[in-house]
């Protein structure tokens, strides 16, 4: 019996992969424009990192992590989110000793054991950015603007930023007490998870999606009445700066996010046509996380963006992404059984590839007619036909597939002719120079 892929995972095949590569390229280019550098952390970390950083009371730590013992008996967890590993790398590499702020981005798979749903699989993928060392509201807004500008460049419309402040540990202490006082008399009517959350962290109740809990959540106290002066002033600055940048946002007093490390600004960017799971990007400030992970007190702010959900939103809006790339050149051999002709075709094939021209040829011994048909299916821009008569004169036939025109070209001139016609940039591999010394 053929083994199928695990539930909650997906294969990306040619045609679809190119769409992802395009999005990854656009995101990397954008992050470069904003001054962020790429970080790549391991797929797995010590479990303690997520227990400390994400929070023991979160659903991620309690229910969703892929955790196992390695052969040395150490508890290892597949990365369930991107911020904690980035903080660990920031501390371990002593990036805090460099000029601040430190601005990092990542493109990585995320693993969570949860019910697979639209746009969220057990192995899904995220784009993310993190900024360390900047406490000002401008840093919060820059992080939001990275996502906002990315969506603008892609042509996504109708997006709205949902914004809230959940305060700092000082002002949140009174708010947690108020939430506990409010929810405890209603505990018997809450879902099982919320009854546990009420004991561990009452703010988690506000993040519940269970329908039975929604009426109570809507009536619960809001944190805006508990913010200290500093948190309130910071939030006013964030709102003012977003308005200045003409970013559409709504105040969402129930928005708390699902991770314990957040402080002050939290946000989600939502797409109106994605249904219940309509967030395409979420994040916020986490000023205590670096210290929680063993560093000095360091402000931080960032976001994570689900790639699967982003692709879904682009499809809903009809935004066309590049599909499977066509090959530049296909080499067709008129005499499939002629060994010398095949060898000369292979020589040209690799000469073209050395010059950064994508090229392919027939390995199945097909007739010339079948080779031409296959080249059309591959959407080859040019076909080079090796014929006995032409080769006797040191030439081949070059066919422009778009225009349907053919001409003879000297075999030695083919690479240069194609590089000029295709406007191929870069240095041929054989001409790349190694550093001297």
Short description, anyone?
Helix content is 36%, strand content 20%. The chain contains 15 helices and 16 strands.
Q: What attributes characterize this protein structure?
A:
437 residues, alpha+beta, BirA Bifunctional Protein, domain 2, Rossmann fold, five-stranded mixed β-sheet, 36% helix, elongated
Report the mean per-residue pLDDT as an integer: 89
| Unreliable spans | 427-435
Rounded to the nearest angstrom, the radius of gyration is 28 Å
Assembly classification: single chain
For the largest sheet, list the strands in their spatial order: 1-5-6-11-10-9-7-8
Number of beta-strand segments: 16
Number of helices: 15
Can you offer a commentary on this structure?
With about 425 residues, this protein is an alpha+beta fold. It contains 15 helices and 16 strands. It has helices at about 15-35, 45-55, 60-65, 85-90, 135-155, 170-185, 190-200, 215-220, 230-245, 290, 305-315, 340-355, 370-375, 390, 415-420; strands at about 35-40, 45, 65-70, 75-80, 100-110, 125-130, 160-165, 250, 265-270, 280-285, 300-305, 330-335, 360, 380-385, 395-400, 405-410. The longest helix is centred in the first third of the chain and has 18 residues, at about 135-155. It is elongated.
Task: Map the helices and strands.
Layout: H1 17-33, E1 37-38, E2 44-46, H2 47-53, H3 59-64, E3 67-69, E4 75-78, H4 83-92, E5 102-111, E6 123-132, H5 137-154, E7 160-165, H6 169-183, H7 192-200, H8 214-219, H9 229-244, E8 249-251, E9 263-270, E10 279-285, H10 289-292, E11 300-306, H11 307-316, E12 329-333, H12 339-354, E13 359-361, H13 368-377, E14 382-386, H14 388-392, E15 395-400, E16 405-410, H15 414-422
Parallel strand pairs: 1-5, 7-8, 12-13, 12-14
Antiparallel strand pairs: 2-4, 3-4, 5-6, 6-11, 7-9, 9-10, 10-11, 14-15, 15-16
Helix pairs in contact: 5-9
